[in-house]
Amino acid sequence: MRLGKGSALSGRIAPTGPSTPISKRVGVRPKIASAAEAPKDANNIQLLRVFVTSRYDKERRYLNLENLQDDPFFKNGKFTSPDLPTAPKDTGTVMLKLASQLDPPPETVSLANNKFRTLKQLAYITRYLPDLANLSLQNNDIEDIKTLSFIGSRSDQVPKLREVIFLGNPLKEIFSARNELERYQSEILKIFPCLTMLDLQPVVKVAGFDASVAKPPRATEPGPTVFDAQMGGPIMQAGVQETTNTFLFKYFTMFDQNRAALVDAYAPNATFSVSINTAVPARARISRFFIELPHQKQLNWEAWKPLSRNLTRMRNTGDNAAHRLFTSPEEIIKALQRVPQTKHDIANGGSTFIAESWIVSSVLSFDTLLVTVHGQFTELPAQGQRSFDRTFILAPAAPDSKARQNGWEVVIVSEQLHIRNYSSHEAWAPGPITVQTDEGEKPAAPAPAPASVPVPAAAAAPPIQAVQPAPIASEPAPDAILSALPDYQRGLITEFQRVTGLNVMWSGRCLEGNQWNPEAALANFHELRVCSLPLFFS
């Protein structure tokens, strides 16, 4: 087997001479904690302490916990090795806590050649060993990648971990048999985002892009500007336009000015729900609404989330779905009063709206009017823009009803309100459907040639040292990078650089790795910022 270069754990595989970082540990049998060495009256904790201490190389800060089940300490029957299913559930935790009391604390831990199938026994490894930089789980029985979340489910759990080895586990063999080694690496890096060595091979992942090749962001290629088909006008069944327009004008006016007065607009058995979608639409991202509109950054979803009945985003779907379906006019008005105030541009003749309506039969025992509205509003007091979709099922108001007395010809039997990030009403305008390219940019000039990142040579290094990312050999000048990109991408990079402190090169790579979605890129950046790799910053 060919060894990877620069691994702090590579010496555990085969001796390669004095230049191997920890080669001195190869073939050396760790000292055994015998019964004679432990006080005869020592309790179990003390016996474990002696065992852990006997396995520790203080000079190299290396804790050898290999071949546990074959060690006489566990074979004598008093203790069960923590990698075995029959072991008490706290054996591994106790050993890790004792390891945390070693001075200096371990930086490298090898749990190779054991029988671990699950890592529950090691769930506290990074809590007790916060300086852990190198971890070997080679030649175990791990086959489910989900079990790795016990030691790395959050990026802040393993901020210093730079190297892991899973060679010899069914896990990697499964991915390899499917020819999915790239996916294997991707899945591992989701759990251990700060790794620079995986299975003895160098790898650097930063903010969603591969730093093993430091290339500038690519300019997007030009494509078609319009679709073959055109956008048609709204569908409005004959005879219902006046009723629809009158209802919508009155409803949105009162929604903005006096929501409590809308109680008469809902039928006694009306139902109402809200659904929010916090994702940024591609149209909005390409049009740079989040950056160019002055108040978008003041918006948040906190007032909307407790009401949202988006079944794809809810936990405890059954209970929450029932609680978030409002089933009387009074409940509906209370829900509407919990969300921020709004301002719909109805005085402008509804130019930012599109409404469609038609009569629906055979759904209820009477004919109903189905009305859908797509549009936008200003959320107050933030003054930011949101897009919305509303679906109303309307029925004629009874002649002697309070609704009719207050001027409502129709009442709402059912309504769904869908709120999303602003994406402009122009998408619904009749006429050619524009393809969302880079705002009609001409093809960008070729990007500068990528600079290569050399893999570190296998030179002698301190025995226990976390592998550092390879230095960037050369980096194109910021002006050269920006000049090769369309205007909107240059704007995204400049803004992202200001917010994150990343340099131009890596701001662009981060955005490109997240499909030029600034919100996704920023979330990815904050997730991985714990890795603290200084070369990516200005």
TrEMBL record:
User: Would I find Transport among this entry's keywords?
Assistant: yes
Q: Which GO terms describe its cellular component?
A: nucleus
Keyword entries, A-Z: Leucine-rich repeat, mRNA transport, Nucleus, Repeat, Transport
Query: Which residue ranges does the record annotate as region Disordered?
Result: 1-24
Major subcellular location class: nucleus
The TAP-C domain sits at: 487-538
Q: Which domain of life is it from?
A: Eukaryota
Residues in coiled coil: none
Q: Where in the cell is it found?
A: Nucleus
| One Pfam entry name | LRR_NXF1-5
Molecular function as annotated in GO: RNA binding
| SUPFAM superfamilies to which the protein is assigned, alphabetical | L domain-like, NTF2-like, UBA-like
Q: Which family does it belong to?
A: Belongs to the NXF family.
Q: What is this protein called?
A: NTF2 domain-containing protein
This protein's species is Tulasnella calospora MUT 4182
Q: What is the lineage of its organism?
A: Eukaryota, Fungi, Dikarya, Basidiomycota, Agaricomycotina
